[in-house]
Amino acid sequence: MTILIVEDNATNALILKRLAGKVTDEDIIIEADGARALSLCHNTFFSMLIVDYMVPGMTGLQFVKAIRMLRRYDEVPVIMITADQDPKLRETAVAMGVTGFLTKPVDAVTFRDLLAAHVGYAPATLAAHR
Fold it and tell me: What keywords are annotated for this sequence in UniProt (predicted)?
């Protein structure tokens, strides 16, 4: 299985990839542009999506809305990361299908714990893609 990180800041993306690598042996792909990330999701099945709220091409919320329209991504965990502290953003994100929400700067332990809670998550829709 493979995890997709959608993050336009190269340093942040590498930190997230390194932290995720401490929790899972899954392949981890990084894409900086939301529209290109969505295109990747049409062609490749990812077992988890980690999405920054502000990326080029589309917002993280637009990405999540589009991804949740793809049936095979109905139950895939989506973690959103943002520097935005607005509680309404969190409410909106969760209502759109975000399963985990973290604010920047990301606490390493919290991130790893959240990832660990979802790694290996295998409802019927995920198991069918293994």
Answer: Phosphoprotein, Transcription, Transcription regulation
pLDDT in tens, 84-107: 989 999 999 999 999 999 999 999
pTM flag (> 0.85):
yes
- Can you tell me whether residue 107 is helix, strand or coil? coil
| Domains of the chain, first to last | 2-127 (3.40.50.2300)
- Would you say 38 and 108 are in contact if contact means Cβ atoms under 8 Å apart? no
For residue 110, give Cα distances in angstroms to 9, 15, 20, 101, 107. 20, 14, 11, 10, 5
